[in-house]
Amino acid sequence: MKKRIAIAIALFLPLAATESPLFPRLTTEERQRIEAALPKELHAKPLQPRKLLVTTLCMRDGRVVRGHPSIPYAEYAIAQMGKRLGGWEVVSTDAIDVFRPERITEFDAICFNNTLGVLFDDPALRESLLGWIANGGGFIGFHAAAATFVQHPRYDQWPAFGQMLGGTENGGHPWKPNERTWVKVDDATSPLTKMFGGASFEVADEMYQLQEPTIRDRLRVLLSVDTDKSDMDPKRRFLKLRAADKDFPVSWIKTHGNGRVFYTTLGHNADIFWNPLLLDHFLAGIQYALGDLKADDTPSAKVAR
Ligand SMILES: [Zn+2]
Asked: How much is the average pLDDT of 209-217?
């Protein structure tokens, strides 16, 4: 009996703050690789101590599933960046009760780290999440965050979530994770892109496209697929869906009421999270969402050229 109780307790012991129980622990070598790539300084001094909620919850057909293998690498990089540079403290949990109105106000921003599927359908929780952001909260989404609260093409969609985020992944990935794509800097004046020096760069990652017909009237696009340099073969799967504007944003910021949103399609592949330039970009994005880094988030289409 005693043994059974001990096992039960062990199962429910809280795991280390940045360890998702669904993934193997990162090796020492993997941790060191991420640590070596971390930015050396913040983009802005925090106005106050910041608390960042990171969730990695992935659901399919009402069941918790293991999502992108890059999840624990992102989780470690985000937590270490905050800890070492002093920008924020991470609270890492996949429990959905943190979205209740009485809990959510503990946080300065919420990060959906490659979340996927319908995380919850309780209208009160949904209202709490979007209401909290509109009230001045910050939201950060990596990669499959744009495929969260949508199980295309069959079931439930929650369009208000996609509107808050700025776009919804449409199920088609014109470029596969192992293919290299060119990414261009759309907003070279932004503090979120200064690490790229205005230059296009090549990256191997799974590139999304969005369902929504127009994009730039709502988003301040920071990075997008450089369609002059990337493989635009019309026979590529799903590419024709975006034939009209050939617009594939990779990172953006936007407001939601009084809140701030940073999203990037990057992060399918684990090595994205030990790329020094991209980590510095994510650092700036997180600090923007936390409210510490000021950036012009006027939608791209409304900026005079
Ligand atoms: Zn992916």
From this structure: 88
